[in-house]
Amino acid sequence: MNNISRIQKTLAEHGLDALLITDEKNQRYATGFAFTDGSVLVGREKAWLITDSRYIEAAEKIAGGCCAVQMFDREHSQLELLRTALADCGAEKVAAEDEKLSHARFLALEKQLGRALLPAGGLLTALRASKNEEELASLIRAQRISEKALAEVLPLIRPGMTEKEVMAELVYHMLKNGSEGNSFDPIVVTGANTSMPHGVPGDTVIREGDFVTMDFGSLSDGYCSDMTRTVAVGHATEEMRNVYAIVLEAQLAGIAAARSGIPGKVIDRAARDVIERAGYGPYFGHGFGHSLGLDIHEPPMAGPRGEELMADGDVCSAEPGIYLPGRFGVRIEDVMILRPEGAEVITKAPKMELIVLNN
Asked: Which pTM does this prediction carry?
């Protein structure tokens, strides 16, 4: 999977001759190949991937069809190869990732290349927001891996297990089912710890009557999945069930309001209204959702200050929550694809009834 042609089209639209890419995720987006050292230069007619001996063979296999793959070494430095490529494509207006590079690194590159660099101005961020069908297929594969892992782990959860033990089971089952790794550090919390949206799994033991919240994701072709499920162990109080029902209602309201072409704050407001009407407004502190792709958090955001319009093909999480400090919390998270006519939820794990485990 590569997006060289999409980038080249955007270069022409922005009056640019070339784009220098140094960020690992952006390099993968451009060429289909991820590596930690080197660079990608995309000109209007040709592209170059420049790396070292550790990655050259794999780069030629994966990106050789879309790029001229070159190796830098002691005799031919990366900067020398970049300068030659820039001369080869006759580039005058060259942009770089001002959003990813430090100010010092941006200035250093200008000095080393002997030319002024233009800020890319979010060019790649905008391109990455709207996913094509191949990217969506990778995201869905990652989601199915996570769902299979959850289905295999739920029967294992019982009183006496620790948060770390449940997290370890999730990681193992995701890897076993084909994940390339974790899309982020999994969150598994229980009891009073579920009131912390980003609690860190520890040695807290699951008890009868506790909630367990699991927020985790897999990777497929480098693309992330993200999902959260809150379940009860043994039994749940009426208040726990009521809070779960409110969070579910809020999530469904946000999903119903979601579509491309509107600012993210409109989606957030639809869900937030439900929670506020139920009297729990102060206990929903984060936004309704975030976009995701090669990174687990990508713009635009569906939050209270989300002014940016959601794009057609944008992939966005739907994750409202209620968190009662020192008592318990509930979050339910799915992922949806936004279209002009509405949202398609790609998460298939059950949620419409609170799952009560009796293992």
From this structure: 0.94
